[in-house]
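Structure first, sequence second, as always.
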């Protein structure tokens, strides 16, 4: 049996390998403390749940949901953006309902790239950004994110021959996996760079709310490109409202780009259940208590986890945003992130994500997801200390 050549680029998946390692550890009697996935363990927004529950009794919500039926949700999104960022948005032409932001980032390259075209991606970066480019037959130019540059790309370093074939660039701040943040000035520089080279600017924005005390509100890309000349942004309710399993998000930005993505989406699916959109509307228009509680919980987890790591001699900077800790591996594991993670889960049951799974520049790091309360996180660090075999390193 012959399968399409495009699948070859998708064969290597570090996270699938980690799933196998976790399964093997469980079969060997280990209790898993899973810090490898950024899937929140917190409850979804109560207002959203109530709206979804009441929708179930309404049989008119049980059929297919076409684009027009998403208008109330799109209007809510436009109002939310205007209140949050001061950006005027047309809900009819500049917003598209998605099954999470991952759907958008994975499908958009099909609308923008011809085979052989380049996409400029962050390295390290979120895996679906690369997956969508591969499915579209595009080429990837990885923009290195280095600690010395605050994990921001240097646009001037992109070769001119790549820019001649490039059609799009994907950014995402606050950033997964490094937890880095970016200023409005950086995004304005990005917009100018894209305007100069004729690139579509894509911004994946799931961690807009997960920012900690002392941090300013992260900017939307639409604040840097208020005319929406070439930008599109993706948001999901998975992180802010703990609704990952409900798969609800949206694209917002340049009308032509949104329309192009809509044409791709129309081939793939209709939309999710109308009751989920009703829940999302309730979440976005509610009093935001869930968001505030979620941020408080993650901040307390961050503080406990960083303190515990520092106490065993693993010095890690405290992240200012997201639900992750990006940690440089100690010796002798400096360039063995996959080996570290597979051997750690086998020996202790603690599962974390190898930096190599996020790109070449991720090697030498691991990502911890703060998806347990402090007592479990501190227990995980105790097990890590035992695995490392010494207290100071």
């Amino acid at each position: 049996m012959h399968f399409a050549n495009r699948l070859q680029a998708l064969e290597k998946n570090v996270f699938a390998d980690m799933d196998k390692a976790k399964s093997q550890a469980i079969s060997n009697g280990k209790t898993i403390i899973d810090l490898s996935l950024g899937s929140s363990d917190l409850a979804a927004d109560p207002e959203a749940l109530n709206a979804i529950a009441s929708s179930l009794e309404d049989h008119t919500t049980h059929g297919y949901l076409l684009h027009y039926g998403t208008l109330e949700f799109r209007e809510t999104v436009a109002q939310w953006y205007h209140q949050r960022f001061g950006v005027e948005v047309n809900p009819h032409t500049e917003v598209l309902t998605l099954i999470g932001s991952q759907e958008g980032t994975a499908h958009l390259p099909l609308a923008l790239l011809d085979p052989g075209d380049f996409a400029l991606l962050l390295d390290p970066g979120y895996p679906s950004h690369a997956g969508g480019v591969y499915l579209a037959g595009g080429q990837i130019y990885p923009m290195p994110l280095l600690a010395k540059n605050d994990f921001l790309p240097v646009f001037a370093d992109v070769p001119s021959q790549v820019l001649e074939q490039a059609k799009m660039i994907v950014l995402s701040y606050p950033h997964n996996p490094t937890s880095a943040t970016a200023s409005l000035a950086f995004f304005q520089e990005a917009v100018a760079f894209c305007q100069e080279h004729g690139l579509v600017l894509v911004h994946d924005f799931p961690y807009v709310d997960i920012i900690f005390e002392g941090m300013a509100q992260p900017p939307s890309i639409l604040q840097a490109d208020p005319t929406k000349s070439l930008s599109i942004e993706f948001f999901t309710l998975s992180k802010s409202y703990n609704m990952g399993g409900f798969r609800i998000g949206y694209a917002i930005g340049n009308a032509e780009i949104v329309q192009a993505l809509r044409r791709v989406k129309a081939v793939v699916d209709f939309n999710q259940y109308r009751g989920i959109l009703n829940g999302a509307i309730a979440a976005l228009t509610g009093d935001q208590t869930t968001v505030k509680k979620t941020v408080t919980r993650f901040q307390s987890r961050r503080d406990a986890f960083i303190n515990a790591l520092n106490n065993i001699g693993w010095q890690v900077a405290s992240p200012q945003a997201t639900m992750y800790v990006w940690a440089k591996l100690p010796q002798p594991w400096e360039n063995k992130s996959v080996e570290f993670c597979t051997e750690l889960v086998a020996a202790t049951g603690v599962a974390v994500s190898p930096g190599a799974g996020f790109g070449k520049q991720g090697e030498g790091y691991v990502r911890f997801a703060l998806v347990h309360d402090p007592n479990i996180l501190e227990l995980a660090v105790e097990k890590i200390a035992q695995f490392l075999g010494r207290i100071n390193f």
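Margin note: The mean pLDDT is 95.
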